[in-house]
Write a structure and sequence with these properties.
Helix content is 35%, strand content 19%. The chain is α/β, with parallel strands linked by helices. Helix 3 packs across helix 4, helix 8 packs antiparallel against helix 10 and helix 10 packs parallel to helix 13. The structure holds ligand BES, manganese (II) ion and zinc ion. Manganese (II) ion binds next to loops.
């Protein structure tokens, strides 16, 4: 479905469906805002008085106009109470409206999105962004490998036109047009992350992941590089290689560089993503149930690659280097064994107590490399621990940071995008659980506070550099269809990262 700004007044257009948004507490039975009500002999007034159209959040009413209007149908979309309305609700509603339209096979629909008196805190341009993101993400499908396709076969040529700008100032209209273009790029980026995660592990090996990163770079002003196993060995990334040893697939260390602020070459952010293309657990093998979900253990890497793609397409004034250590974690004949010792690139020795705690091992070397390169601040994204889901459920990811400013900035962006995160503590006391009797540190900290001890392990390699870690294991997949989410990959936290980088670039 094409989502476009309408060039003409939607009320003058022949449409299959006209979408009208209504607040529950401000629903106006005379519906003066909708001229169509008159041509329908106040039919809509009756529906409102009967309580059939009531504006309750999420309610969708399809009304036929029986040749009394250019628009064959009107779809009333309930926005709920005005005081409860926010951008998250806007995205969810837009997703459900778009799915409704798709399921009906309408070819041209229009949404009067500019005609609503929004709560003061919501700018009309942000409302339009939310509608574009909601519709675009809500309509996402992953059906490339199906011979008999479903939703993705619904007319590609169908379109949703956004309009109702008549009452807005020129300045507002400009802001809306810009916001819509940005929202499209942001949604495409989030969908790229979903695609990478949904792909099965045999079709998303480290080599293929690197190729996909290269492809994203080719379309944009990103500089792509991928280090081979030999180069990784030369750098001394013993922790990363210790994980890669159990697989025949060649590991890759993917580097994407974006220089949007060449006047400040010494200011360069480091963005790191866990790129385990399949996590069997290694010798400490996982149980069979749900192991297939571990094809998505490169969700951090996917988010990193996809947000770099978005940042480059938006040409933000910022410098970012993205680092992705990519490998499988398999129990091959030469796999690392529990009890083995590894030496990371910064010299730290690590006792591998459990080969299933591999994410922190590959990120240890990536963080050391980032520090070597002088990148700051550092943000890593990783499907790191099952324990984060125990702590926060599938509602929120975990945020860990040694820097309040960075943590607050991430938190703020997360509130804007609805990709929830909750800050967890990094108190020194938790470090004790990672103490080894034979090496500098060990890679597990016992059952208690599993996500925090994992984060403390990473902290060791981030050092004093301002750093934040997002544990996305709780949110990278959705088990149900829900608003903008389908079953499968969510694409979190791509929208939040792009929002953060947009704010940092404006500073
Ligand atoms: N990739 C997993 C974490 C994970 C679990 C991600 C569920 C998504 C969904 C990670 O590598 C892992 O296996 N972590 C272990 C750590 C433990 C061995 C200390 C875990 O969470 O059990
Ligand atoms: Mn694991
Ligand atoms: Zn893992």
């Amino acid at each position: 479905m094409n989502i476009e700004m309408s060039q003409t007044n939607l009320l003058d257009m022949d449409l299959d469906c006209l979408v009208s948004y209504v607040f529950e507490d401000e629903i106006d039975p005379s519906l003066e805002s909708l001229e169509l009500n008159k041509s329908l002999s106040d039919y809509i007034t009756d529906l409102i008085n009967d309580g059939e159209v009531n504006g309750r959040f999420g309610q969708l009413n399809l009304v036929h106009t029986h040749k009394n209007a250019k628009q064959k149908r009107i779809l009333f979309a309930g926005m709920g109470k005005k005081q409860d309305f926010n951008l998250d609700r806007a995205r969810k509603l837009a997703a459900n409206v778009a799915k409704f339209i798709r399921n009906k096979n309408f070819s041209v629909s229009g949404a009067l999105a500019g005609r609503i008196e929004l709560p003061k805190a919501i700018a009309v341009s942000d409302f339009f962004s939310a509608i574009v993101e909601g519709a675009s993400l809500g309509l996402y499908t992953f059906e490339d490998h199906m011979r008999k396709k479903g939703d993705s076969t619904k007319p590609e040529s169908s379109s949703l036109l956004l309009g109702g700008l008549g009452g807005l100032t020129n300045k507002q209209q400009d802001a809306v047009h810009k916001a819509v273009e940005t929202a499209k790029v942001v949604s495409e980026s989030a969908k790229l992350a979903r695609d990478l995660v949904n792909e099965p592990a045999n079709l998303m090996t480290p080599t293929i992941l690197a190729e996909r990163a290269k492809l994203a770079a080719k379309d944009t002003k990103l500089d792509y590089q991928s280090l081979t196993k030999k180069q990784i060995e030369k750098l001394g990334m013993g922790a990363f290689l210790g994980v890669a040893k159990g697989s025949h697939e060649e590991p890759k260390f993917i580097i994407l560089k974006y220089s949007g602020d060449p006047k400040n070459p010494d200011k360069e952010l480091g963005l790191l993503g866990k790129g385990i293309t399949f996590d069997s657990g290694g010798i400490s093998i996982k149980p069979a149930a749900n192991m297939s979900a571990m094809k998505g253990d490169m969700g951090g890497a996917a988010a990193v690659i996809a947000s770099m793609y978005g940042v480059a397409r938006l040409e933000l004034k910022i410098n970012i280097t993205a680092l992705v250590p990519a490998t499988e974690n398999l129990p091959g004949g030469s796999a690392t064994k529990p009890g083995d010792l590894l030496t990371a690139m910064n010299g730290t020795t690590i006792e591998v107590e459990n080969t299933d705690a591999e994410g922190r091992l590959v990120l240890a070397d990536a963080l050391a490399y980032a520090n070597d390169q002088g990148l700051s601040p550092l943000i890593d994204i990783a499907t790191l621990t099952g324990a984060i889901g125990v702590a926060l459920g599938s509602v929120s990811m975990g945020l860990f940071s040694n820097d309040d400013t960075l943590a607050n900035q991430l938190n703020e962006s997360s509130l804007d995008t609805g990709e929830k995160m909750w800050r967890m503590p990094l108190w020194d006391e938790y470090k004790d659980q990672n103490k080894s009797t034979v090496a500098d540190i060990k890679n597990t900290g016992g059952r208690q506070a599993g996500s925090i001890t994992a984060a403390q392990f990473l902290h060791e390699f981030a050092g004093d550099t301002p750093w934040a870690h997002l544990d996305i294991a709780s949110v990278f997949m959705s088990s149900k269809v829900d608003g903008i989410y389908q079953k499968g990959a969510t694409g979190q936290p791509v929208r939040t990262l792009i929002s953060l980088f947009t704010k940092l670039a404006a500073k």
